[in-house]
Amino acid sequence: MSRKESIKKLRDQLIRRRDALHRALEGDLSLLRELHQERTGDILDAAADTVQDELNSQLIEAESRELTAINDAIARFDNGCYGNCEGCEKPIPLTRLRAIPYATDCIDCRRKAERMTTKGGAVMWNRVFDNVEADPV
């Protein structure tokens, strides 16, 4: 199968995933609305509801981020630049696109970006205690 045919299949896959995410988000949001209307019970029930609300909220946020990435990928396809790395502008390998169809960069550019992020001030937790002396006895 040619790259062009593979890219077309990936676009179809992105559209199916986008539609599934739309349905999931609609369901998640309606569930949250229903739960807020049914509030009854004691303090423990309220605490459990709060925890569930937070989990649902985080799930909705993750689905929304993926939906945005998918919409951006479909727009790149429509603009004719889907499948090209935004960093080096070389074609992103099909194996990467099959794994992450909304990827915007090749593995090399992603690794460079991650190295720059850790050097730019992010805490490297495996190094936090390198220079700390042991507790005195």
Task: Outline the structure in words.
Residues 127-132 have low confidence and may be disordered. The protein has helices spanning 3-37, 43-79, 94-99, 107-119. 66% of the residues lie in helices and 0% in strands. The chain has a single domain (3-127), classed as DksA, coiled-coil domain (Four Helix Bundle (Hemerythrin (Met), subunit A), Up-down Bundle). The chain is mainly alpha-helical. It is built from 4 helices and no strands.
Summed up, what is this model?
The protein has 4 helices and no strands. With 137 residues, the protein is mostly helical. α1 packs antiparallel against α2.
The N- to C-terminal Cα distance equals: 68 Å
CATH architecture: Up-down Bundle
What is the β-strand count? 0
In DSSP terms, counting alpha (H) and pi (I) runs of 4 or more, how many helices? 4
| CATH homologous superfamily assignment | DksA, coiled-coil domain
Low-pLDDT stretches are: 127-132
Structural class: mainly alpha
Helical residue percent band: 55-70%
* Shape category: elongated
CATH topology label: Four Helix Bundle (Hemerythrin (Met), subunit A)
**Residue fraction in strands:** under 5%
In CATH, what is the class?
Mainly Alpha
Q: Average pLDDT value?
A: 81
Radius of gyration using CA atoms only: 22 Å
Question: What composes the largest sheet?
Answer: none
Number of self-contained structural domains: 1
- The succession of helices and strands, N to C, reads HHHH
GO molecular function, one term: zinc ion binding
Zinc finger (dksA C4-type): 85-109
InterPro entries: DnaK_N, Znf_DskA_TraR, Znf_DskA_TraR_CS
Protein name: RNA polymerase-binding transcription factor DksA
